[in-house]
C-alpha cells in the first residue's frame, strides 16, 4: 500500500500520470512508499490497491500590492516644485503618483502634471471617467501600460491627465480599442487623445515643495495596481485578506489638506475595503482637531461568499506638542507623529504608514499652544473572507495611501500606507 500525494512536491517520491478523462484506475508500483500523482486530476480516480490520499496541494498564496517604479531626476533650489527626468521611467509614473524616495525630497510629494520630451506615440479616440479609460478607436500607434495621456499632440505641452496602468482583458484588443485603468482619477469627454512615454528631459510638476538642492538622484514612485486575478485550475475555494489605503497625516496649520487612501477591491462590487480619511489639520484657538476616520469595508451578500468586514482604526491626536500617530490596520505599520514644529518650521518630519499595510500616516506637532497638533490618518477598512462559489476571474484594484499634508511648505506629515490583497487558493 502506498501513500498518495496529489500535485505536490515530495523528495524521493515516484511520479505517475493522472488520467486525462473519465474515472480511471491508476495502477500503483508494486512496492510501498510515496507516490506523486501529477498534475492534479480534474476527473475521478481510483487506485488498484486501496491506497489512500494523504494530502492535496499546498495552498497557493498570491500577494497583490501597489507598484513601486523609478527613474532618475533632478530638482533645483530649496522650493522647487518640478522634477526633470534624466532617464526614461521604469514602470508607470504619471499624474497621481507619489514621490516616495530621492535625495532631499520631502514626504508627500505627488505628481500633478507632466510635460513630455518626446512626440506622442499613439493617437486615439477615448473618454475618461474616474480611473477608467474607454478607447473607441486607435488611429496610429499602439497603447501600452506606462504611457501618459494628454489632450495635446504638441511636445512640451503640460498635461494633467493620468497614465495607463492596466488593460482589462476581454474588453477589446490589447493596444487598441478597449478598457484601461489609469494611475489617478480624471474626467474627460470623448475626444482625440494622445499617449506619450515619459523619457529623459520630461518635466514632472509636484504638488508640494521638495526641501533640497540636489543633483541627479534615483527617484521612487508609488502607483496603484489594477488587474485580473485568474483562479487556478481545480481550486476549491479562495481565502482573501485585504485592506484599503491609509489616510495621510494632518499638520499644525490650515495650509493643505491630507489625502484619503484609495479603495481596495476584489471582484466587481464583491469585496470593497475603502481607504482611511486624511488626518484633519488643527483648529486655531486650542479647541480640537478632527480624527482621521478609518475606512469602511463591505462584503456583498451573495451565495458562496462569507467573512468579516471591519472599519479601519481612526488616527490619533496628542494635544499640541506632538502630532498624532496614524490608525493601525491588522497589518500594523502605522506612521508616528512628529514633535514640535514651531511657526519657524523647525523640527522633524512625521512618519509614513508602511507600504502594503493600509495604516495611516503620522501628523505634525507644534510649539504653539494655541493650536492642536495634526491628527494621524485613518487606517483603511479590513476584510477577511472566503469565496466558495468561484468565478474564473476577478478584477481587483490595490491603491496607494493618501498624501500627507504640508506644514509651512517645508515639513510634511506622513503618507498613508498603500493597500494590499493576499489571496490564498485551496485545492
Can you walk me through this structure?
The protein has 427 residues and is mainly β. The chain has 3 domains: 54 residues, no CATH class; 156 residues, no CATH class; 201 residues, no CATH class. The protein is built from no helices and 30 strands. Strands 10-17-8-9-16-11 form a 6-stranded antiparallel beta sheet, with no helix packed on it. Strands 7-30-19-26-23 form a 5-stranded antiparallel beta sheet, with no helix packed on it. The radius of gyration is 25 Å and the shape is flat. The relative contact order is 0.18. The N terminus is likely disordered.
Structural features:
mainly beta; 3 domains; 0% helix; 427 residues; six-stranded antiparallel beta sheet
